[in-house]
Amino acid sequence: MNFFRSQTMGYYKLIIPRESAWNVMNELAELDCIHFVDYDPTLPMINRPFANYIKRCDDLLIKLQLIEHEMKKYYKKITYCKDVNFLIKNFKQIIKERSKASHTYLDEIENDIDKKHQQLIEQSTNMENLHERRNKLIEHKSVLLKGEALLGQSFFQPANYVAEGYVNLQGKELDDIKVLQGSVKFNYLVGVINKEDQIRFKRIIFRITKGNAWMNTMDIESDQIVDTKNDDAKIIKSVFVVVYPGGGGSNVITNKLNKICESFQVAKYTFPENNMVFQEKLRSIETELVETRNLLEMTKNQVEAYLDDFQRVYQNSNCSQIEELKLFLVKEKYLYTQLNYLRVQGSVLYGSIWLPQGADIKVDSALREVQTIYEGLPTGQLQISPPEGTKPPPTFFETNEITWGFQEIVNTYGMPRYKEINPGLFTVMTFPFLFGVMFADIGHGFCLLLLGIYLCVYNREIKESDSLMKHALIVRHMVLMMGFWAFYNGWIYNDFMSVPINLFGSCYKTQPAEHPTYPDELEWALKDESCVYPFGIDPVWMCVPNELTFMNSYKMKLAVIIGVIHMTFGIILKGINAIYFKNWIDFIFEFIPQLIFFTCTFGWMDFLIIYKWFVNWTGKTDEAPSVITLMINMILAPGKQVDPPLWGDGTSEASTQTAMLLIALFCIPIILLPKPLILNSQNKKRYAQSASNLTENLNKDLYQKINEDTEGTQENSENHAASSGGEHHEEFGDIFVHQVIETIEFVLGSISNTASYLRLWALSLAHGQLAEVFFQMCLNGGISSGGFVGAIRLLIGYSIFSMATFGVLMMMDVMECFLHALRLHWVEFQNKFFKADGYAFEKCSYAKVMQDNAVPKEE
């Protein structure tokens, strides 16, 4: 029963010659059954023997990421690996067919990637330079054309010089400035600026020149200039022209404007002196643009040719070349990471491993296969060994598609100890059931059930598609069971989206009221005293005035009964654990008194609820006692006669309650005192024995110090210091305080945990009331109205009803019920027996690490 308790583990020593370390580890990593023990967890990976190989793999993976980025930029489709086991066999075959040493295949891959990466970088750099050149030419051409449109031919004409500051251009139009062209010398500043900086640039120009400048802009076509640093995104730029009075290039305004241009990083251009130079410059730019476009096209074709090589799926492969290289490097990195867990001594690697029972046969077979495949290479050796240190073996459960999700729920809280009962086995059954109790509804549960059936039936089709539903495939069986139990419990409550279903015929009929308050008043009466509704609750209870009171009482008591049974089962599992580990102290002084305490208190309360249900209170409902009152009086008024009694005259009931209370109180000191006293006595004996052994060892050391050399003596002293330092004497105060906390947590936790199960009632009530509100507000009016108006109201109301039901009940309430079921398992159930301080069996597996990296990351 590998899912009830962890698989039995064996501790082994692995010895591998360094010359065949790669080959041996390559075979072992395909077995998926080895847990390597790190010989020194405090030693950084960078200081280990194979750290350089890992760094090389990381560097190559980074280069492949850059190449993959380029492929996405050029819209190259990458074929990802769907079967990593096929790829592992392919790698193995390639290495086997080579005549060189197996580990040197990484060198070939490294040289190939470096070469192609360097070529791609050179071509990409050329592309960026050509784009930059093309951008400059487009900007210059735009400056000439837009500048001519803004300035006109008159600005090619010479003019006289007027000193700066004599002409105020504030508020003047360009035509007014051109009138002054014949008598005043104007300077101009022409350039290109990002459109987003245009307004700020204008404001600063105005402030610096105090309005003594004229400025205008024109946009360049948005599809012409690209940003080479941002995946060739389009940039919107504008040509600006600033005209201001003055002569020469060293005046104050010119210097200020140049500084502003530098701060905005704008490109400045000069305007030709005459029309002839203007036309000649324009033709030169056009010629250069044609040449640049041709070079760009050629370079782009070369880059795509390189990328096509990485995109191609080669023979005997199932994915693109870049994906195959990436997964090979992931595999190599993982191999050297596992080798770093071994201690290197000379030409041999020593390590410790954990193996599940029976896996040593597979490892021995793999070691023999290394010698068969690679002739002339020494293979490794496997030796059974007693475990070192006090750390227990790792925990390992075999899971499948059904149990994986439930086991993850447990592991998220904590990993079970080695050989501790696995809560995941029971979570498979109890988690969907408790969810169904809270989400109980025939309609909503059936929708969830249909979703689970759809995910299970069309599992492969969804996995191969791009549907968002494929992310839910991993929990499809959990959704299926949650939907089933919600559907089932909906029939128990007889609730179909707040509407009861009269499937078997009600046991009640209407008749004239015995004491009517108004004429023709009717009341419900049983058809037959022996009539019982076959399954679930009679639908009449949903139509009576006290419907909410009745359903609240029923669901609340049902929640308490389920909670007490669930927690009692958890306490029983604690006893089973104690028997398995032969921990008789916990079994006698914790499990037995805890079970008796819980049974005498909350088990007694469940008995009262069930007994009260079996009594026919027809015609004497006023005599029915309150279970809550009975439990309160049991504590506050022990021995007092019960009135009204649940059975008899109340005397036997009172004496039974008193006996239950006394037994429960007697269990508390049994839980609190014996265990710390016994543990303290055992610790004293163990400490005295270790002290006696230490004295004996010290006497031997003294004799050895006289007869042996200093080196040998130092080694022995270190060994004894290590052995004596491993002993730890736990004080009685620490043990007692821990037991006090455990006792208080159990006694008070029994009360709070039982109350916590009332969330089963509360969430079921909230779900039912929300469904009723949606039905009454959206559908009931249209159904009641009838006719054409009613049909219109029903059509509009149903659209609102469906959206509200999907958004609130099928999305938010599903998540809410899921989280509350999670809490009931983590806190109320598992804390009765689950320590959750184990650690997982981390199997060395190529398939797992490659599968994790084969899935493309979401952008």
TrEMBL record:
Membrane topology of this protein: Multi-pass membrane protein
Main localization, broad class: membrane
UniProt-recorded Gene Ontology molecular function terms: ATPase binding; proton-transporting ATPase activity, rotational mechanism
Matching InterPro entries: V-ATPase_116kDa_su, V-type_ATPase_116kDa_su_euka
Family of the protein in this entry: Belongs to the V-ATPase 116 kDa subunit family.
PANTHER family per the UniProt record, alphabetical: V-TYPE PROTON ATPASE SUBUNIT A, VACUOLAR PROTON ATPASES
Protein name: V-type proton ATPase subunit a
Organism, as annotated: Paramecium pentaurelia
Lineage, uppermost ranks: Eukaryota, Sar, Alveolata, Ciliophora, Intramacronucleata
